[in-house]
Amino acid sequence: MFKGLGFIIILTFLFCPYSFAQDYIVGEGDVLKITVYEHPDLTTVARVSGEGSILFPLIGQVKVKGLTVSEVSKKIARMLADGYIVNPQVTVFIEEFRSKKATIMGEVNNPGLYQLEGDTTFLELVSKAGGLTKDAGDRAIIKRKTPTGNRVITIDLRKLIEEGDTSIDISIQDGDSIFISKAGLFYVTGEVKKPDAYRYEEGTTVIKAITMAGGFTDKASTSRVKIIRKKDNKEVVLEKVNMDEPIMPDDVIVVPESFF
């Protein structure tokens, strides 16, 4: 469905890794490499303990679990500045990532549970799952557990993939659950040249739907087009609809034959 997927993933690898790494949330089992500018003796490689802390020279135990890489850098800098080093410049890298897993379901070719190697973005996980199916819709829903409760994140796939807005290609976190929605469909039947089911897009009008179906046949009664719409589990028939009227997912557009 989205032809630019591979290209966007390549762009993500080329231009975005540093910013994503800075947003990575540190957890138990991660191995951090910490350097302090002009103080090579303080260079430390440490694994985050089960209590969520590391041991750093001069300042001792530092609680880092739940902080981003950027926040860890700032925290250590503040602690060093408190009586040890003037204006310390601290850099933190993830030397080794802990084992993280996320689930991706819905309209991908190989849904399931995936292990995340390093800092993995949404598009990278979609690629691991075999890419989007042809029936994929415009939205992805990410359910994420946070210290304050569950958070739901919506990703606009059209904006991300077709428009190339990689700013919304967020990092996937341990335990995330991703669902790729199925595109809504509508149906055009009767006196059109290509009666069939078509993918719904917001803002589609009756005349656009008929155009997608190849237009009217010579036998079509263009003034008697109707829509069969589901409402409250019942079918409602809208007679003699306006050609500029917007349609809804699951609508059936019926073009009757002219009596003349």
Write the layout of secondary structure elements.
Elements: H1 5-15, H2 17-23, E1 31-36, E2 44-47, E3 53-56, E4 60-63, H3 69-81, E5 90-96, E6 100-106, E7 112-116, H4 122-128, E8 136-146, E9 149-156, H5 157-162, E10 177-182, E11 185-190, E12 196-199, H6 206-212, E13 226-231, E14 234-238, E15 252-255
Parallel strand pairs: 6-10, 11-15
Antiparallel strand pairs: 1-2, 1-5, 3-4, 6-7, 8-9, 8-10, 11-12, 13-14, 13-15
CATH topology of the largest domain: Outer membrane lipoprotein wza fold like
- Count of DSSP helices? 6
The CATH superfamily of the largest domain is: Outer membrane lipoprotein wza domain like
At CATH's second level, what is the architecture of the largest domain? Roll
Shape: rod-shaped
Largest sheet at a glance?
5 strands, mixed
CATH classification class of the largest domain: Alpha Beta
Task: State the helical fraction.
Answer: 10-25%
Count of domains: 3
Q: How far is the first residue's CA from the last residue's CA?
A: 41 Å
User: Reading side by side through the largest sheet, how are the strands ordered?
Assistant: 7-6-10-8-9
Order of helices and strands: HHEEEEHEEEHEEHEEEHEEE
As a percent range, the share of strand residues is 25-35%
Average predicted confidence as pLDDT: 87
Q: Poorly predicted ranges (pLDDT <50, ≥5 residues)? A: 3-20
What is the total tally of β strands?
15
Structural class: alpha+beta
Work out the radius of gyration.
27 Å
